[in-house]
Write a sequence for this structure.
């Protein structure tokens, strides 16, 4: 089964199954981020979250970030926005651990997008946020 591969702190391979709705939401997010904010938007951005290697489902990086880190694979500093698109197989603990890891290595915001319930949770370094602090219109994401 095709999927995304990550490594945990012990070097074990973690593989997430592919999901079409997941991919559609990723594509819409990339388009929205790029059109609204400029910079670079990624599907499957690899990020070193020492000791783990994580892969954000979607990430957005400013032009400034790209000048400093654009050639890195994996990124050693997280892009400004790191997003996980939840699958039914994801536990809340797993998703929140990933967001905490992205924030710990420099993300300004980390989001969990829930396609099936059409909601988004936003987090910053200090904890949950009522909404993103970036100038984005997310109303049509789930249309």
């Amino acid at each position: 089964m095709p999927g995304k591969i990550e490594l945990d702190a012990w070097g074990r391979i973690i593989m997430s199954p592919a999901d079409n709705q997941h991919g559609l939401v990723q594509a819409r997010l990339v388009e929205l981020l790029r059109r609204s904010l400029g910079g670079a938007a990624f599907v499957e951005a690899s990020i070193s979250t020492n000791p783990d290697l994580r892969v954000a489902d979607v990430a957005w990086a400013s032009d400034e970030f790209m000048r400093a880190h654009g050639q890195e694979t994996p990124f050693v500093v997280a892009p400004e926005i790191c997003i996980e698109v939840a699958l039914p197989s994801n536990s809340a603990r797993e998703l929140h651990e990933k967001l905490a890891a992205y924030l710990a290595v420099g993300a300004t915001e980390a989001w969990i997008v829930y396609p099936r319930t059409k909601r988004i949770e936003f987090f910053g370094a200090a904890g949950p946020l009522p909404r993103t602090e970036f100038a984005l219109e997310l109303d049509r994401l789930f249309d």
About this structure: Strands lie at 3-7, 13-17, 40-49, 52-61, 81-85, 109-114, 119-124, 127-129. The chain has one domain: 18-126.
